[in-house]
Amino acid sequence: MTKPTIGDLLNGVATSLRETVLPEMPAGPVRRQVQVAISIIRRVSLMWDKTGPYLYADNKDIEETLQQVCAILDGVESNGSGAAFEPLRQRLHAALAQRDNRGVEYPSPGALGVRNLELQWLLIEVQEALQEPSPSPGGVEHPGSAERSEIMPMLLGLFRRMLERELEVTAPPAAKQLRSC
Amino acid sequence: MREQAAAVEAVIARLKELLRANLHGVRDIHIDNVAPITAGNAREAWEFDVRWRDRGGEQTVSCVMLRKAQAGQLETELIPEFRIIRSLWGSGVPVARALWIDSDGRWLERPSFITEKVAGATDFLPLLKPEASEISRALAGQLANVAARLHTVDWRKLGVDFLPATTPETAAAQQIAYWETLFRKHRMEPHPIMSAAFIWLKEHQPTAGRISIVHGDFRFGNFLYERDRINAMLDWEMVHLGDPVEDIAWAYRSLWSPERVFSLEEFVRRYTELSGIAVTSDNLLFYRLLGEVKHSIISLTGARSFMDGRTRNLFLADRASTVTSNLKQFMDWLPD
Asked: Across the interface, do A159 and B203 touch by the CB < 8 Å criterion?
């Protein structure tokens, strides 16, 4: 059974509350609570079925970017900065290996969400490992600077795509109109 | 309705206790016209009139009581807010007259303070209407005057040592540290983009041109106005010593910006003429970016309070969804 969808139901509930409950309520804090509740229900009605595809696309994009980060770190394995990045490199390889052996063709939004959190933490680890240290005496280039200048634009590009993707789900044009009301 | 009446009775009884302890040599204390006036996100507000008799005869004062909410979108103390309002009274910065404080909730259940009521409205939505553009423009100009006055107040003479000390070199770092601590405490997911934002901010800290009293939430919506006049600046809960440019950047966040009727350039020009304080583009950009992070963390704090069941205020329930657009703005403003 697909009809009514969860979105249809939530939208119907929001409409009923707005048309039958709200007009009976006097102005004040309780009425404002109900107005906010209606807005939230309407917003959820627009995004409830987009969470799974959104998380799937987000995870895929993060994993692909982290693969590229891994490739850069693999290339510097033998020199000094490579040693400093070794724990991160190993963590990335281990985490990215997991994506191919889960054996689930259609992961649930819950499972995708758990994976998304894992990947978010990895992105933080990468940034912390690459964080620019204080300038070294004599202006000598710090080990890892070359990797940082290659990886950081890659991460910023990923972050921009992540935000665009998230905005499409959390603030679709219809939801923006609702919020401005 | 019965619950509301009981709540009012309870407030009256508690207020009388507070006033008996604070008003010496008076008799016949009466409290009338008690009513809740907002369902604020950080505090609850009540208005009332208080009457008493002393040697001068009958006295009447219309008051507003701000009481700390059980949980909200900010973790702030009421004491510095009360003290800064009291300190600024008579300084030329429009504030309400601070009257009494219950700093530990001994009388009023929760930390609370009382000021004299100031006439006016706070709602800025009517000001966004095209027919209100002249009034909005006048108010934005006055906001520049208020900023200039606030930021040139000699705070050393005011005795505001209850605000943490700072220097031009450390002002930005202190703000970053404050908001990053809150972020780490209240985030409900890792937020790598926020972490990237903090890294950028730490690497681009500007030196402040001077140290001033910074309101911290300086914007449309946080002052009482009557027609085209600002009567009092409100909501001082984020007050601190810091770079005055922070207030200007915050006033022009898109959510409440008067840009449509009074451009940022015009605001800065007027502000600098009045205050002598230069607003450099580096400092302005830094604090605009910090503002997006700050607003995100305020939202995360509110959402976390709701999710933890520490508040049932639905205004806070969905606040985390605003973080994405704030961070998008942050990324859009990042220089290449």
From this structure: no
